Amino acid sequence: LSAVMDSPTALAQPFITFNGPVLIGTFVDFLLFGVLIMQIYHWRRTERYQRAPTWIHYLVYAATFFQTVQIIFAIIACWILLIENWGNPLVWASTPWASTFIPALDSMTSTLVQFFFAWRIRVLSKHILGHIMVALVLITSLMQCGASWAVSISYFLKPSVAELPALADIPKVMLSSGAICDCLIALTMVYLLLQARSKVTFKSTIKMLNRTLTSVIESGTITAVVVILELVTFLALPNTGIFLTFQFMVGKLYANVLLSSLSGNGGVGTSVNYTSSQDSHFPSTGNVLPMNSIPSNVRSSQREQGGASVQVHISKAVASDLDFDADGQSDNDFGSGKAGVGHL
Fold it and tell me: What pLDDT digit, counting tens, does each position of 159-168 carry?
């Protein structure tokens, strides 16, 4: 009897590096899903939610829908692998059907979030290089999305593990394009904020930009780091399932980064557009600043820095970068490249 009871554990021993990552990834997936729900709850209670355009609401709800379905499939996959087939050495001979849908669902979330940040970069920079960065973000995001769907479809149609090496190039494209896209977004946002900070003289404004810069670095790079770790473990440890830990959680990270960006740290902020007579790769940028960081008695002025005239256009903004009316229209004329309503 003892030998019989010990046999399932003995048989499962070689699969610890597969079962363990699935279990850990599912736990972290649940944790991040709880954080996402709390962020949505708090965001809906803020003025930013009320004044955000309808498409932002749909964006958040679509990302939440995809991640809700994803966690259902993650639970089913975890049940098949760890409960229903515990001790069965043949369980890893084929990919569980439920897990094949996870890359596609995560890619839908990541693409929505990456498109959102591409739109934000487009708003913050009117220069041609800003447009090029937006195009690169969109291209790499679509590559990642297409490769993710190819992975899901291929693994669903050919679940046998013996056939997976022939499909290894598709996950490489999926992970590498996703990492490149996230890095482009993070680097571009950091550059825009640094450009804005270099043209500010108020200490309170500089402190606010520093906090915003830190937030962008933290939130904008976490997804890139996780995707890179997934790619590294997939390539360096092909005979294990360690990469599954990162695969299960990455979609929730994208959704949480989106909500964190929309929620911000305060209520109403200002969108500031800096223009200078000096040449700049990104001469026009907009950034989140608290209303109390601008003296109320200041309406217009022009400062000279190093012989170059610097104008700072101030406009009221909500939802991190823009100010939206109740009907979902922006207060700022971004379509014409005019973001300022006053001069500081």
Answer: 766 666 667 7
Q: State the Cα–Cα distance between residues 221 and 246, nearest whole angstrom.
A: 15
CA pair distance 219, 190, nearest whole angstrom? 11
d(CA 30, CA 33): 5
Tell me the pLDDT tens digit for each residue of 63-99. 999 999 999 999 998 888 888 877 677 777 777 888 8
CA separation for the pair 216, 193 (Å, rounded): 9
Using the structure block, give the residue that is written with the tokens 């693994």: 155
Question: Smallest Cα–Cα separation from 89: which of 161, 168, 3, 165?
Answer: 161
Whole-angstrom CA distances from 115 to 143, 214, 249 are 13, 22, 20
Contact predicate 92/160, CB 8 Å: no
Which residue from 121, 127, 29 is spatially nearest to 77, judged by alpha carbons? 29
pTM to 2 decimal places: 0.73
> What is the spatial distance between Cα 1 and Cα 68, in angstroms, rounded to a whole number?
43
Q: 């770790």: which residue's tokens? A: 229
For residue range 271-325, list pLDDT tens digits in order.
Answer: 334 334 343 444 444 444 444 444 444 444 444 444 444 444 433 333 344 444 4
Q: Report how far residue 334's alpha carbon sits from residue 322's, in angstroms, rounded to the nearest whole number.
A: 10
First to last CA, the chain: 83
Q: Please state, in angstroms and rounded to a whole number, the distance separating the CA atoms of residues 200 and 168.
A: 49
DSSP lists the bridge partners of residue 290 as 269
